[in-house]
Amino acid sequence: MSITVVGSLAFDTVKTPFGSRERMVGGAATHFALAASFFDRVHVVGPVGEDFTDIEMAILSTRATNVDDVERVPGGRTFFWEGEYGWDLNSRETIDTQLNVFEHFDPKLSEASKQCDTLFLANIQPDLQLQVREQCPAARFVALDSMNLWIDIARDALLDVIARVDCLILNDAELRQLTERPNLISAAREVLKWGPSVVVAKQGEYGAALVTADTFFALPAYPLETVVDPTGAGDTFAGGFVGYVTRHLDRPLTSFVFRNAMAYGTALASFNVEKFGTEGVLGLQAAVVRERVEDLQEFTRFDHVDLALERARQPLATSRTDSRSEA
Amino acid sequence: MSITVVGSLAFDTVKTPFGSRERMVGGAATHFALAASFFDRVHVVGPVGEDFTDIEMAILSTRATNVDDVERVPGGRTFFWEGEYGWDLNSRETIDTQLNVFEHFDPKLSEASKQCDTLFLANIQPDLQLQVREQCPAARFVALDSMNLWIDIARDALLDVIARVDCLILNDAELRQLTERPNLISAAREVLKWGPSVVVAKQGEYGAALVTADTFFALPAYPLETVVDPTGAGDTFAGGFVGYVTRHLDRPLTSFVFRNAMAYGTALASFNVEKFGTEGVLGLQAAVVRERVEDLQEFTRFDHVDLALERARQPLATSRTDSRSEA
Description:
The structure is a homodimer of 327-residue chains.
Chain A: E1 2-6, E2 10-16, E3 19-26, H1 28-36, E4 41-48, H2 54-60, E5 70-72, E6 79-85, E7 92-98, H3 111-114, E8 118-121, H4 126-135, E9 141-144, H5 148-153, H6 155-162, E10 167-171, H7 172-179, H8 184-194, E11 198-202, E12 208-211, E13 216-219, H9 233-247, H10 255-274, H11 279-282, H12 286-300, H13 310-313, H14 320-326
Parallel strand pairs in A: 1-4, 1-8, 2-6, 4-5, 8-9, 9-10, 10-11
Antiparallel strand pairs in A: 2-3, 6-7, 11-12, 12-13
């Protein structure tokens, strides 16, 4: 099995209440690949500039990720993002965005990338996502992320490509904006009518929820006392999610698979946010990821005992007078 | 066993995107009692005015709730709140608050109310909460709610009473404000140092999280396509939570009990938000509550299969060159 991801490769300058870092390797495709590479071979498609050196390329190649389709544009500069997070890390302000080589990006996939079993269309212009989607006709599971900008300025193109994917992975608020439905469940059900069979709403520190035609599943974020830098958490989640699904493509994609995929995505994202940039997931061992998945199972499990309501089964005084006389 | 609650009894005028209602019976103690009364006998302590008629008193007395300590102040008017909710029901604006009889409320508990096994100090002035706490020395489980107003203007009194309770049930954002810690886990652990052994963070549509010295548990809100009026959801949750705990007071209060308590609180709150005011919980049958608890178990359960990461267990090509030659 193999996974192809198309998306941004970037330098990120980030300031959070816990410190700041300049020009770290980042971008949606990078964070996705670092997580998905735990599960299967990943092929990354995206442009970089001459400032993206072999050191950055080595980070991207972690766990044997294939970078043949990373196009180094002569004379170009890599996509750059600068942002600052607020006190509780729930809000962030973009200080600078430089598209650079992304401005004229025209994705051309090698045969190896085209032959992927699963495809992740990270957050880029919807028409580029569609172009990549069409180059991978054999992909058996295709997931897509997007953002408010494209909902605002390229809604029709976005709807076109959404109709061609199996799974939409979107921020909670953006899902509501896209569907113009304030309620999460209505919003997800609306998307299910458009083509996808799986909708995942990312809810930041509250976790994520999954909706299919016949299932609802929600998982909290992994509880951490120290969250340092949330940049890339959503793409790391997507990498774990799509990675897990990829490994199970030969079986029916049941709710069982998607629930575990959510758990692996959530566990991986927790390592991402504990450190700056790619530091948290880069040298990670599979065993500790697995431990956090087991923790998540424990953090969410309850065994229902319905003894609690037995009082309500008994005949009760229900009028005010009765209750007084009994007191 | 019996439960005493002290808190507001109110008339609420509410406008939501789904309609509006004028002067519905409401208030924290009302919503709490309607939920807690499924589990055990509830005693309500709080003041009302002459405008609170026998009709309202009958609603409060649902499922045999004892209203002997509901003080009808001669010539007084009942506490009044008016609010309007935004598009997605996550934000609300208070249009009017009239304290009325609450302005000079001096809680006096009957012997029956003082002899409670569990006590819920709903959101009122912290010094009144403390006064009630001291009148119930035998209570074996005491929970407390509060709000940003008291954190702002009566922080010391609030800390005094928090030190005297077993469980703090607070909105997520207020827990952070109270502890001046932006991180939920740090904030909860800080409160655990002050006296309580259980902290519950209410997270609105994202559910609730529970933290003790040795447990973390999180549960999403019950997924609903139609949410009509969130007023009272938090107090309904607290009623289910404290009610469930009350029925299990004769056993060790383990994580098992608290997790079920969270589930019953969450299920009951979901009925509250589906209709205006008290309409959703008033005529509710125990069996349908139990069904939603079972649904919640299904919505959150996953059985971990760690097969997924087996690729990472095998020796892998890790350099860029290797990955290329393999592709």
